Amino acid sequence: MSAKVWLVGAGPGDPELLTLKAVRALREADVVLIDDLVNPALLEHCPAARLITVGKRGGCRSTPQAFIHRLMLRYARQGKCVVRLKGGDPCIFGRGGEEAAWLRQQGVEVELVNGITAGLAGATNCDISLTLRGVSRGVTLVTAHTQDDSSLNWRALAEGGTTLVIYMGVAKLGEIRRQLLEGGMSDDMPVAMIENASLPQQRECLSSLARMQDDAHEFALKSPAILVIGRVAQATQALAALASATA
């Protein structure tokens, strides 16, 4: 595993959700570049590695991406096994694809290791099934924050009929609400707002599209948080109540 860069998904925060492959990479690592949202408890798997924090978090001062590229390249060329430890999954809003492509252009061997994404873990912890027979035939993962500040096709998302999982949307709740309503989504569409997915301090607030901005303010919702928008946010609870009543 020497002279190689592993782009490893650390998962949403719960240490028990780390994959066995991720643990193996961390144990063999000489250098670990750690994202801001990575749970420090995961670092017990790499006690001998050099640890370098390269935080990247919306609304905060971030380590420049070019600097992270240079660090990975420098240590790889020194023959080190490098792990770039990213929150969630490296290829879901984690720039894993960009980093892998750049490193391969420099002649560096790269391997990506999936991690459980916060949208899935947060929903599951709230007993929400993102797809549910007869309710939702699919799920769409989107980010409300784009590099060029371009807008999503909200009308298409509103009309698509899938469960929406929105990342990095806390600062844009008003815009999300307005765009989806203008796109034709019902104002009573259930919305689950989930903060600190999978961690002991996870909090969740069940609301509706019409009320989510007011409810988020009352709830004091803060990042990191995800939004789950769709009938599944209430349907799973309804099915559980029905099963209990007929047992």
CATH class of the largest domain: Alpha Beta
Major sheet description: 5 strands, parallel
Q: Count of helices?
A: 8
Strand content: 15-25%
Q: Can you tell me the CATH architecture of the largest domain?
A: 2-Layer Sandwich
Give the total of domains.
Answer: 2
H/E order of the elements?
EHEEHEHEHEHEHEEHEH
Number of strands: 10
Low-confidence stretches: none
Distance between the termini: 53 Å
The level of helicity is 25-40%
The assigned structural class equals alpha/beta
CATH-defined superfamily of the largest domain: Tetrapyrrole methylase, C-terminal domain
Rg, Cα atoms, Å: 20 Å
Q: Overall 3D geometry? A: elongated
Q: Which sequence of strands runs across the widest sheet? A: 3-2-4-1-5
- Quote the average pLDDT: 91
Q: What's the short story on this structure?
A:
The protein is an alpha/beta fold. 32% of the residues lie in helices and 21% in strands.
What's the structural blueprint in terms of helices and strands?
Elements: E1 4-9, H1 20-28, E2 31-34, E3 50-53, H2 65-77, E4 81-86, H3 96-105, E5 110-113, H4 118-125, E6 139-143, H5 154-160, E7 163-167, H6 173-182, E8 190-195, E9 203-208, H7 212-219, E10 225-229, H8 232-246
Parallel strand pairs: 1-4, 1-5, 2-3, 2-4, 6-7
Antiparallel strand pairs: 7-10, 8-9, 8-10
Helix pairs in contact: 5-6
